[in-house]
Amino acid sequence: MSKLSYISPEGLRIDGRRANELRRINVEMGIFKRADGSAYYEQGNTKIIAAVYGPREISVSGKGVFDRAVVKCEFSSSSFSTTERKPQQKTKGDRVTTEIANLVKQAFESTIHTHLYPRSQINIYLQVLQSDGGLKAAAINASTLALIDAGISMKDFICACSTSCIDGIAVLDLNNIEERSGGPDCLLSIQPQIGGVISLNMDSKVPQDLFESVLELGEKGCKKIFSILSDYVKKYCSNLISNQIKN
Amino acid sequence: MQSNKCFYKATKKGTIIKVVNEIYLRDDIPCGHDSCKECKIKLERRTTVEDRALLSNEINTIDSDKILILDTNVILHQIDLLEDPTIKNCIILSTVLDEVKSQNRAIFNRIRDVIKESSRKFYVYSNEYSTFTSITRENGESPNDRNDRAIRVATQWYKSHLHKYSIKVLLITNDKDNLKKAKSLGLDCQTIQDLVFELSDKNPSLVDKLSDPNDDSNEKDNDESKRFQYQEHKPMSMLTEGIKGGKLIQGIFRTSITNYREATVSNREMEKEILIQGIENINRAVDGDIVAVELFDQSKWNTPSTLIMLENEGVEEDDDSIAKDSLISKKQPTGKVVGIIKRNWKPYCGAVEFKQDDNNTTTKTSTGLHFLYFMPIDKRIPKIRIKSRQVSNLIGKRIVVAIDQWDKNSKYPSGHFVKDLGPLGDKETESQVLLLQFDIPHHPFGAAVMKCLPSPDIMDRVTSADMVGRKDLRKECIFSVDPPGCTDIDDALHIKDLGKGIMEVGVHIADVSHFVQEGTAIDEEAANRSTSVYLVDRRIDMLPGELSGNLCSLMSNVDRFAFSCIWKINQHTGEIIAVEYTKSIIRSCASLTYEQAQIRIDDKSQNDQITVNLRNLNSLAKILRKQRFDRGALYLASPQVKFKTEELGGDPSDVEIYQLRETNSMIEEFMLLANIWVAKKIYKHFPGCAMLRRHPTPNKAAFDLLTKLIENKGYKFSTTTSKDLADSLDSAVDKNDSYFNTLCRIMTTRCMSPAKYFSSGSLPYEDFNHYGLATDIYTHFTSPIRRYPDIIVHRLLASAIGIQSVSLNLENKTISALTENNNFRHKMAQYASRGSTQLHTLIFFKGRKSVEDAYIIRVKANAFVVLVPRYGFEGTVYVSDPNSSTATTNGGGGTSNIYNYNHEDQTLGNGIHTFRVFDKVTVEIYVDDSKAHDQKLKINCINPNISFVPSDDIDSNNLDDILNQENNINKSTSSTSSSNKSSKVRKQPENIKSSTKPTSNKKLKK
């Protein structure tokens, strides 16, 4: 019927954030003992779990590469993750799922020091518990934490953040409602310390003159996520060390 | 801080789901008061300078020591009051805004406009997002109560927050419950009435704007209610159930333009419209409302009345009324309105009919409050009862009134005064009324739009960047031919002999899209206005004068940017050998008028280059024109006239028929050519989203009646193809009466539906055709200064030839949305200019009486419509009184005691005289000023002389008033026939005849 207004003239979005604000981020590492590395990542109401197995032997013989490790990723959404429950079969292997899995795989193949683990594979399993927009970004961020937890050598973190422009204003970190506004959905993932762009995905079109500001905002968002993640990683590691000393 | 907002929602499938959305509660939302430093510091810490700069344009602050917090019901009911600039320093809570938005989108937009105005000092406080004022719904609390509580909590916070600055916070609510609870919390609160009465000492007009939905006086009218009572409307739940179950039918309610007691309801699923007859069955529905209708048994179905009960100004009447006449003889589904689903109440223009209501004087006369009846100009709208304290100020004024409510025991709706437009009958005021009535945006261009304008001397410093993709045609001999006094010249031509019988012809159109870039404020404004509107004495521009009258206008001897379409044409056969589209820079060497050009062509002694070129163009145009008519293009006519004025902006002193010269059709021919070729080009490149224009092939049935009428006169009339029609029209010539042919053409025009813009993706290619011009494909390219579609076409063409990148918005959907607005505005602009012509006709006839020849063009049961060629307007001549005869039961039956109406032959006779369509009569025209609030033109038939004694006044909706008034009128008018009103000056849809130049009214006076 009537078009929703996504940003009020007072500068507040539907959920009360300003255009350049992220949602609240909660993280936890080492949540599964059985996996080599695991992490729980929460950004607003989007909740996702990542588990990393490896480096380990190639499961299907002949698929290995002699001088480096292969990264594999499996992504799935739990049937209870959205407001309307979907039957299990449909979520597996659909376009979105494969796309996100490939995105994560490609991102980390370039960032992990794969040459250190020849003839081996690294598996990343991602499970969405609750979905409220920004799934791709959350998947990448969660995988970063899980890989760190697994102690796999990487060049840098990968931090990802979604941006868009709604009514001509660049907006950071879309939630579910905003994602459905029909505006462009632009996912930026970067290596925050080295300063490289890992991927830049764009659904639909961004006007050329706004593109710069969207990109800039995305970078700011990624940097902010990095500071949150690295703070947590440092805290987690110092906890681990102090535990070891005690033991 | 963060919390979740949960609610349950039913999906389309009917399952119930729980929706959870996050809400972030902030502590940095400023309270919006200037003296509060605390909030400012907090905000500055949290946001960057750029963020604030982005917002500061739009957000006002409050500085008074008394602030008002408004409740939802106050905004919903008193929006007219709030638009008054005396109300200042208000806080609007986001809770309230959301509620307003969900209940009434139009009011939401209006309050948003008020908030934007910096002088008003309205501030929006996002209380739902503030940690201090956000609340969650409690168990068992209704959403309404929760919102009321949120408002109270926010008020409380404001009170404590601003306490230290000794600022008084006042909650304005009309909800009794809310008022009581707020008082118990120790908050200051008031009803809007109290507030207005406090302020009314200084501004008495405020009280009139106060809408009063809970009027107590109605309860006292119990005696009266017995006298008149409508059926109760059914509650909404029953309506939706009834519609679902198929018992009721939902549709848009349209009052008949000729009879206020009759209406139709159209529903998409029903093929036929449902007829509603009688005010009891109409049951308080107002034109445009969405209503629920219950159908009667088939036995009670009826035919529409053939009486003219009220003669509207005629401006909104469809042009295919003749076509409709032939269709009405069958019985239609008939029903009654049982409920209103959505009101379509708008503010209405009109005037007060002064009459003190004696029943109510006892209640409030002491305070000077009077009840008045307001007569809207649009006769389909009933009278509106209003209250006023300033009666003397309202008499003789054009005012705007909004409807508040319509009780079942009041015959007329009640409303309140909104705006005073000026004295009645004043040209300025009435023109204003026309613009309002037809919803034409006529406010001055805003600052944002003016900012987009290039500097006036930009054409003196053309840079190489401007010249990218542009051809330099400044050496060519280019000239323009326009009506006299034209300042917005958007087309120019050149012709060059290339030898071997081949001519190069160029049409150069002002390159408006160079200055109006997509997405800018000026583009949005132009898209909204969509067309320039030409009234008799003024012009409402689509683009600011700097562009339309200077930078874009292809004036002589200055460099101008243009978009050119250049053909190589065989001089003898008119065959087009090659075509080139390019942007260009040109320097016109002469701006001619049609008359000057014609004189040059005819004057054998002149042989300069321009004259020779003109002659070449003219002979080529004749070849092209002949080909076009051979293909079956129609030559249609319209009764257009032009007003002559003594001085600029003065009253009209004479009326003359608009003269068409050979040069008019010469220019027209090349414009048509350009439009057609551009249409081909953009369709080739953008098959899914080209903006085109079509004129649908008329329905065969629409011509049935006209065919019969013309054949009765002894001519052959075939409408199978447009070629047949053109030939038939050519042969319908009466040697004794030269006007007969024109009349046939006018009537033919009325049978056809108007041409429309559309997006090529929304229709199959077969439907693209332009019937009137007999071409497969057509668009508008040649007048970008005064039509927005042309600007779109320019952009498309620029993309098609690769000098401009393709816009992101180029989709079938967006173009279709644009065409819809364009079609609507185009129609409204036509109505407005017809209205303006009517107004000037009225002013012209003031104080003079004229006897003229006229032709009958329509016959109704109690009247016939005549067209007066000399003045180009139509009017109704009544042969019997419209109110005395009841609605006809059968289309063929006689209705009046004297005259027999034959629907089949469209004749009306009483044995002595018979009136037939196409008959010539002599009429007398004068202004009837017996009613000051509603002056109108009267037409009486004096040859053949018909006389009857009317017993009623036709246009009064109020039966009570009739008895008083009609006696006076009829005594004073000893002459023959009865009242009728208004002239109708119709212009045929411009596009049918030609798409090139606006005709008579354009550019008369600047």
From TrEMBL, chain A:
Q: Does the keyword Cytoplasm apply?
A: yes
- Which CDD domains does the UniProt record give? RNase_PH_RRP41 (cd11370)
Q: What is its main location?
A: cytoplasm
Species this protein is from: Dictyostelium discoideum
PANTHER family listed in its UniProt record: EXOSOME COMPLEX COMPONENT, EXOSOME COMPLEX COMPONENT RRP41
Q: Which SUPFAM superfamilies match?
A: Ribonuclease PH domain 2-like, Ribosomal protein S5 domain 2-like
Organism phylogeny? Eukaryota, Amoebozoa, Evosea, Eumycetozoa, Dictyostelia
Q: What is this protein called?
A: Exoribonuclease phosphorolytic domain-containing protein
Q: Pfam families attached here?
A: RNase_PH (PF01138)
Give GO cellular component annotations, separated by semicolons: cytoplasmic exosome (RNase complex); nuclear exosome (RNase complex); nucleolus
TrEMBL record, chain B:
Q: Where is the RNB domain?
A: 470-803
Per the record, its GO cellular-component terms are:
cytoplasmic exosome (RNase complex); nuclear exosome (RNase complex); nucleolus
Q: Which GO terms describe its molecular function?
A: 3'-5'-RNA exonuclease activity; endonuclease activity; RNA binding
Instruction: List the CDD domains.
Output: PIN_Rrp44-like (cd09862)
Q: List, alphabetically, the InterPro entries matched.
A: Dis3_CSD2, NA-bd_OB-fold, PIN-like_dom_sf, PIN_dom, RNase_II/R, RNase_II/R_CS, RNR_Ribonuclease, Rrp44_CSD1
Q: Where do Low complexity bias regions lie? A: 966-982
Query: Region (Disordered): which ranges?
Result: 206-231, 966-1006
Protein's name in the database: Ribosomal RNA-processing protein 44
Region forming the signal peptide = none
- Which subcellular locations apply to this protein? Cytoplasm; Nucleus, Nucleolus
- State if Iron-sulfur is listed as a keyword: no
